[in-house]
Amino acid sequence: MGQRKASRDGDRKVGRRALLIGGTVAAAGSAVLARDELARLWWRTPGVEKPREAGAVDYKGARWVAASDANWRRADRPDDFGIDMVIVHVTQGSFDSAVKAFRDPGHKAATHYIVRQDGHVTQMIRELDVAYHAGNRDYNERSVGIEHEGFVDRPQDLTDEMYEASARLTARICARYDIPVDREHIIGHVEVPGTDHTDPGPHWDWDKYMRLVRRARTTPA
């Protein structure tokens, strides 16, 4: 849905700088070339990934629950795909139902995080990797997706605890990748080109949320 047809979603890109270095090495035919540089960029060669620790989270305080491998693909972000966006979702169901869906290989979609109504944060996909959450390949590759427990037509589901916890999470993501805290870079699923989703819906208070993100962005972690 709204995806480019140039290659399969599982195809892997290599950074331009890595290609240039590889080409120079081939031309020079010498192991002398930029050993320190090559050592620093070793993970950008095809088939090589950054070291990973099972169960590790990117956001302190989050609980790890792994999504099905069918609902995301491995990447080495932000080195192969730059991250410049956070996309806000609402689950249209309970927290438990969202976790169950994201662990189901037949669901074919998942976000990096889910924020519960009480403010609890669960991470299901590493920020390194591309989650299938936006319905648009380009936006998937460049964003971190955050689900929020509730229904778009129930304003009472959007609790203060959830707004505050999500704002802290978004602020840390923005700090980590130098993402501007504005509505061009923090968007709703409904704003993704080609999507047929309406979340986070008419009751999502963007003024409140952005105010909380800006406040959290200037508060020491």
TrEMBL record:
Keywords: Cell wall biogenesis/degradation, Hydrolase. PANTHER family: N-ACETYLMURAMOYL-L-ALANINE AMIDASE AMID (PTHR30417). SMART domains: Ami_2. It catalyses: Hydrolyzes the link between N-acetylmuramoyl residues and L-amino acid residues in certain cell-wall glycopeptides. Pfam families: Amidase_2. The lineage of its organism: Bacteria, Bacillati, Actinomycetota, Actinomycetes, Kitasatosporales. This is N-acetylmuramoyl-L-alanine amidase. Residues 72-201 form the N-acetylmuramoyl-L-alanine amidase domain. Its EC number is 3.5.1.28.
